[in-house]
Amino acid sequence: MIAAVNENIKYDCRQATFSDAEAIQNLMQQAFADYAVKNKDKKNKKKVINSALREHLEDIKADLENNIVMVLNDGDKIIASLRLEEIRDKRYLLKRFAVAPSYQNQGLGTMIFQEAVEKLKEENAHYLQLYSSLENKKLVCFYQGLGFNCLETDNKKGYERGLWIKTII
């Protein structure tokens, strides 16, 4: 367990356990609720394909068993989570990266991400990739700030998304 301090508040970053599955599922529902709306115009909301909102507890438990799942806690409450899946030799996929809405814009996503990068260095990872919306400028800036570069785009999920890559080594 690694402790992170942000403005005199202590957060604990650790590898998740099976007992965290339900709290992770609740976090996903909260954090990805707005991601599923293509545009903010209340008259013209268009739903997009967002598998994070349809994820079952069994899916989370499978990730806990087979992948690296990290959480950031504020006391007993999980406030951020991310998952790292090795998809090819030394190449990992960052997925289900979420920070609880009331904790966003405080540097906590960066904190848990930095701990994930340290974990990947221990695994001798070479690359980290993710898919994310290009329509959300806040997310684009966030991932660019973490050192990711967008390599390609598609509309397979009903919105413009990018394949982002970061070199680890």
UniProtKB/TrEMBL annotation:
PROSITE patterns: GNAT (PS51186)
Top-level taxonomic group: Bacteria
CDD domains hit by this protein: NAT_SF
UniProt domain N-acetyltransferase: residue ranges: 11-169
Pfam hit, one: Acetyltransf_1
GO MF annotations, alphabetized: acyltransferase activity, transferring groups other than amino-acyl groups
InterPro entries, alphabetized: Acyl_CoA_acyltransferase, Bact_Acetyltransf, GNAT_dom
Presence of the UniProt keyword Transmembrane helix in the record: no
Keywords assigned: Acyltransferase, Transferase
Name of this chain's protein: GCN5-related N-acetyltransferase
Organism encoding this protein: Halanaerobium saccharolyticum subsp. saccharolyticum DSM 6643
